[in-house]
Amino acid sequence: MAKTCLVTGGAGFIGCALSSRLPEHFDRVIAMDNMHPQVHQSPERPADLDERVEFVVGDVTKPEDWDRLLADVSPTHIIHLAAETGTGQSLREATRHADVNVVGTTQMLDALVRHEKLPEKIVLTSSRAVYGEGKWVDAQGNETYPGQRSRQMLESGTWDFPGLTATPFNSAKVEPRPTSVYGSTKLAQEHILKSWALSMNVTPVIYRLQNVYGPGQSLINPYTGIVSLFAQKAKAGEVIPVYEDGEIIRDFVFIDDVAASIVLGTLHSGANENAYDIGSGEATSILDLAKIAASIYDAPEPQINGMFRDGDVRAASCTIDDSKAALGWEPKVMVAEGVRRLCRWIDTGERD
Ligand SMILES: NC(=O)c1ccc[n+]([C@@H]2O[C@H](COP(=O)([O-])OP(=O)(O)OC[C@H]3O[C@@H](n4cnc5c(N)ncnc54)[C@H](O)[C@@H]3O)[C@@H](O)[C@H]2O)c1
């Protein structure tokens, strides 16, 4: 049987990075995307989408778009990327996020049933946002889930949970407890896909991605992408404003490493009981990230401004040993080198 891979949201950042890698493994690769104006400057086919990939404009929330697509395409594999991705924005546009992320997923599953075109495998890119603040430990080593930082805490500049230290996320050890609408919709996607797929004899493969960055990311979407935001400020010679006390922790994972991990899982993974945590394995403070970007452009010292953003978690990093072992994968580009590559792409349009 011919192998066909359908990538929803396939014209986006991660979709384009996958587009040059998938055609060597599939007879047919189709990217379905509604060319969301918040992400794309123009509704035209993106230049970064590999020419071997068929491009279909379609909206995952619309049954008629699925009917049109599935009349022609019988996917053996689906990589489900299409999503609303703004964590902060999801607080004020909750319905839009739930509609695309939750209903878009159920519309896809219903359409596959309606057309009797069940794929062998569906790969979902969930997010580190499902963990919320994750699990912290006290001085005695007792584990606790501190929940969500209150407005009062943030307004008084109490950035951490007093007496507690954050631990890295790990899907086998840390329960998901989202603290944003976006994170809640991503967790709902995971549950919906898993329960549907296991009943339908379809293999679900779930990833939880940390902060993905690198050449090809949207430079116009103001709701995502702290790395490109910092890089663009530094390039303009501006002072990079750094929120809270600069010690917000993130794991910045380079786009090529993410794409490589998704291809491996799409080709080789069975259903994974625990989601694959995908990061660089390196925790970085946002102050250090700002310093890296500033030094590349010789921009002024970044300034900590004590401001905060609704929905931001304090510490998000992960352990990747389980994913490395299960996928036979290894991240190759750490943050200093990755930011340099992003800046080179912003400056010249070229990739290393
Ligand atoms: N980039 C990250 O840091 C990151 C981190 C964790 C998880 N993820 C997940 O990875 C996936 C892809 O993210 P990305 O970084 O490539 O984002 P992106 O915004 O670049 O790509 C998403 C694509 O989906 C499309 N889209 C949006 N709504 C759609 C709809 N209703 N129908 C069809 N297409 C639609 C957009 O036009 C866009 O091309 C998302 O599911 C996101 O939740 C990304």
Verbal overview:
By secondary structure, this protein is α/β, with parallel strands linked by helices. It contains eleven helices and 16 strands. Strands 3-2-1-4-5-9-14 form a seven-stranded parallel sheet, with helices on both faces. A three-stranded antiparallel sheet has the order 7-6-8, with no helix packed on it. β1, α1 and β2 form a beta-alpha-beta unit. Nicotinamide-adenine-dinucleotide binds next to α1, α4, β5 and β10.
Shape: globular
Largest sheet: 7 strands, parallel
Q: Cofactors and ligands present?
A: nicotinamide-adenine-dinucleotide
Find the CATH topology. Rossmann fold
Arithmetic mean pLDDT:
96
Separation, N- and C-terminal Cα atoms? 37 Å
Number of spatially distinct domains: 1
Please give the share of residues in helix: 25-40%
What top-tier CATH class fits best?
Answer: Alpha Beta
Widest beta sheet: strand line-up: 3-2-1-4-5-9-14
Number of strands: 16
Supply Rg: 20 Å
- In percent terms, what proportion of residues is strand? 15-25%
Q: What is the secondary structure topology, with strand pairs?
A:
Layout: E1 4-8, H1 13-19, E2 28-33, E3 54-57, H2 63-72, E4 77-80, H3 89-92, H4 94-114, E5 121-127, E6 136-137, E7 143-144, H5 151-155, E8 165-166, H6 181-200, E9 203-209, E10 211-213, H7 226-235, E11 241-242, E12 249-250, E13 252-254, H8 255-268, E14 276-278, E15 284-285, H9 286-297, E16 303-304, H10 321-327, H11 335-348
Parallel strand pairs: 1-2, 1-4, 2-3, 4-5, 5-9, 9-14, 10-13, 11-16
Antiparallel strand pairs: 6-7, 6-8, 12-15
This protein binds nicotinamide-adenine-dinucleotide.
Nicotinamide-adenine-dinucleotide (NAD) binds at residues 8-9, 11-15, 33-36, 39-40, 59-61, 81-83, 85, 100, 104, 125, 127, 209, 211-212, 218.
